[in-house]
């Protein structure tokens, strides 16, 4: 099986044995940009012990990389706030960098026979499941429902060598969706694997939906399916 992860886009090494900091380089557009991610412990006013403090992640990167990321810096900052560890944020950052790198790559329309094959694969799934389709057939978004009828979107980038090489897939889930690919797979396999991926979050989303409906949620201001935590207001009686 082949992974759809782009190798070498983010190269980091730990600075300590505890894993509270990693530093290295992000490779974008044949340029390398220095990146450092560290964990800081924030202590509350009520308790000053180390165990009582909450953790906050800190990101340092070169201005050149910030310019390359552009509007995606909003997603980077959101993931930085919601990630619970340096390691989990590294995974999120790598996904964002892969998305930016994919968008920067010059997209050449597939050959006519490849486009016809893609159309046939979409027809097998059903055009009613297509959320959006790029005119050059380089990118397609599918609407997918989970077991609780919640709506999701999986985005699929089809490169020039598809289906020989796997597509790059993205979906808003607490854990990144990693596609498993082998010869003979089609877009239907992408949908089936994404549906399987969604299944593991059903109980979590049930709880979060209940919190969103019956609690005063302070953060996040806009809850998306990839955010697995909530900060809520509690009255003085609690």
Question: In brief, what are we looking at here?
Answer:
The chain is of the alpha+beta class.
Oligomer class: single chain
Total strands? 12
Q: Evaluate the radius of gyration.
A: 20 Å
What is the N-to-C order of secondary-structure elements (H for helix, E for strand)? EEEEEHHHHEEEEEHHEE
Q: pLDDT average, as an integer?
A: 85
Helix count, DSSP H or I runs of 4 or more residues? 6
Largest sheet: 4 strands, antiparallel
Strand content: 25-35%
Structural class: alpha+beta
What are the segments in which pLDDT stays under 50 over at least 5 consecutive residues? 1-7, 45-53
Question: What does this protein look like?
Answer:
The protein is of the alpha+beta class and 238 residues long. It has three domains: 2-104, no CATH class; 112-199, Ubiquitin Conjugating Enzyme (Roll); 202-232, no CATH class. It has helices spanning 63-69, 73-82, 86-104, 112-125, 187-199, 202-214; strands at 2-3, 10-14, 21-28, 31-42, 54-61, 130-133, 139-145, 151-157, 168-171, 180-181, 217-219, 231-232. The strands form four sheets. The protein has a four-stranded antiparallel sheet. The chain has a four-stranded antiparallel sheet with strand order 6-7-8-9, with helices on both faces. It has a two-stranded antiparallel sheet with strand order 1-10. A hairpin with a 5-residue loop joins β6 and β7 (139-145). α2 (73-82) packs antiparallel against α3 (86-104). The protein is globular.
